[in-house]
Amino acid sequence: MKTVNAIAMSDRSPERTLARGGFHVRSLSASKQREQVLSYHVVTFPKVYEGSFVARKQLDMAKNMDFFKQHTHTVDLYHAELGELGQGTLSFGSGNWAQVTFKGAWPSKKFVDGKTWHVVKARTSDGHSFSLFECKVNGFVLYADYVIDGDVDAAEFKRIDIRYSEISEWFLHGHRIDGIVGEKLTWTEQPKQFSVNVRSGREQFTVRSEYVGGFRKQGEDHVLNEHIEFIFERTNGKFSLRDLKSKSLELSSLLSILIAYPISIICVDIMADDGCLYPAYFPTFNKVERDFSDNGFWIKCFVQKRAIEERWQTIFENYYKSIYREVTWVRLAGMQRYEGFWEYKVLAYVSLLDQYVTQRAKGVKRLPATGLNPKKQSAFKIAIAQLSHPLVEDQRDELIDIVGRLFSGERKMSFLTKYQQALANTDHDIVRIINLSDDDFTLIKDVRDAIAHGDDPGLQQSDFGKAIVIVSRIALLLTYWAFLDFGLTTADFLKCLTTTHSRLRLNSQPDAIHLARVTKTAEFFNVSRAKFQALSKLKG
Fold first, then answer.
1. Which of 46, 96, 191, 508 has its CA 20 to 30 A from that of 481?
2. Predicted TM-score (pTM) of this structure
3. What is the pLDDT of residue 252?
4. Which of 105, 133, 107 is closest to 120 using CA atoms?
5. pLDDT exceeds cutoff 70 at 405
6. DSSP H or E stretch at residue 228
7. E-assigned strands of 359-475?
């Protein structure tokens, strides 16, 4: 009997064994590529995949411009006005800025340091072209904000396709391959895709998810890949280069907050006027490494896809209308990546909370105006009574009144007042479950203030662990407010707390008893104090 192997590459890494009538599926982790090895025995291996492996967009594995890899090419540079610019080494990837280091003669007479050149073309010796956009020269190096893999002149695009890390595993959870090898393989439980319409300022565009799959033959193996891409498409104009980066990062922030895990950009394609897709690159975050031997990533995501299956339109509409989107939510998502010194984490999260409650308090009625402080008013009266040319009583009273009106005004709301005001308008049960006490707030605010001023926060050894838990509770509270801002509900948030193993939930140590009481996931009985004490003494 002939043995044939197939390898299925995916953003998912399910460690599972399936038996389907002679079809044995054995999943193994294979380093960073997260490959699934399908081992089976058949007499012949007909071409069964072409008819049964269906994807609306066929994957071209060779054309991907992976953001996580380092790309280096020897290129000749050319500019439409300046002509030939010489030869250099183009390098980009791994989160680094794209740059060309010149070789040989330096075209100093053609370039002006600091000036922005819209597009510079780079060509390899085998004729491969790159378009470098928004270029500046500094010394012997040309820096580019964006790289397009191909000969592209216009900096406007109709469509942007984005692939992210981790999110496909979440999106494709429950997706299976059934059948008998040698006869037919069927992809079952395929995930429901979404398509939404968004209006943001003057922009109108659609966002949709799309299943992408493909395979290649590698010796006696067939390598399969399936993942999800997210596609932005303008309906009333075109996207700019700035949109290329902002749209990619805004969506990654939204998805990262929903699943409470930092996702990263793997690759981006743009559709030019000729209707072709071109890979693009810009510097951004590097990927957060995780252990792919763990096949339960989906359960560690805060929200499950099925819980929001029918509400993508609401989520996107609210997200793009949100006053918190461009700063607060971007920073909240960004802090998921931080693994450094604890003091900086405290500084960041408490300042983020401060920024959120300050933004939320805008438009809220200010505290009433006050006149002069009574002690200062009394001292002022004594001072004017001792003038070398004393005023008469009416003049003195009039002057005191004028000074009082000039130096009075609305009192500024303190961080504490704004925070308390935000809590007062937050679901009472959620506040109890998150369990961020007044003492916790006072402690962490004092620590933040000390760190911000370069002072010793003065924590005892036993306080360090407590400070980290408080920070996690702040992150959980901000995530709750983000859920409401996205159009989700308190019930949605409670479901996430009860059905997830997310590190956001585990690290924050919420009040499990009150959570169980509110969600009715445990039974509670009313007993007298005497009976409770008697029951407490029972053993066994």
1. 191
2. 0.81
3. 97
4. 133
5. no
6. strand 221-234
7. 367-370, 409-411
